[in-house]
Amino acid sequence: MNDTHDSSTTNDAPLPALDYEHARLAFSIIQVLLETNDATGDLVALMAQALDEDTKHALTNTPVWTNYLDSRRALHAAQADMEKFSEAMNKLEEA
User: Fold this and answer.
1) Within 13 Å, how many C-alpha atoms sit on residue 67's CB side?
2) What are residue 72's phi and psi, to 5 degrees?
3) Quick check: is 7 in a domain?
4) Nearest to 65, CA basis, from 73, 20, 13
5) Is the pLDDT of residue 58 over 80?
6) Read out DSSP for 17-35?
7) Could you tell me which residues come within 8 angstroms of residue 4 by beta carbon, excluding any fewer than 6 positions away?
8) Any domain includes 3
């Protein structure tokens, strides 16, 4: 993910014209990525329950864990943009 992305700067910008088929493809890809991300988060939570406290502590003090948390924060920050895109897709489908 791009760490320099700031969704607050794009929320008021008008959406560029987008061919419906390309928009539909992008929307489909985004849905798959979000579903995969949710499944990964569920798996991480389940695995964390199986670990003892010492192992959890060792795991959460690694760069890999930091990257995981950063990616979750970035996805959360992009949520408004995803909702805006979803609304645009719904409008395209209605047209």
Assistant:
1) 5
2) -65, -40
3) no
4) 73
5) yes
6) P--HHHHHHHHHHHHHHHH
7) none
8) no
Average pLDDT over residues 16-39: 85
Q: Determine the pLDDT at residue 4.
A: 47
> Which residue range is the domain that position 66 belongs to?
19-94
Residue 7, token pair as written in the block: 């969704």
* Residue 10, domain member (yes or no): no
How many independent structural domains does the chain possess?
A: 1
CB neighbour list of residue 71: distance below 8 Å, 6 or more residues apart: 1
Q: Which tokens is 28 given?
A: 């489909």
Q: What are phi and psi of 3, to 5 degrees?
A: -70, -15
Query: How far is residue 39 from each of residues 34, 60, 69, 72, 77, measured CA to CA in Å?
Result: 9, 19, 15, 13, 19
- Position 5 in a domain: no
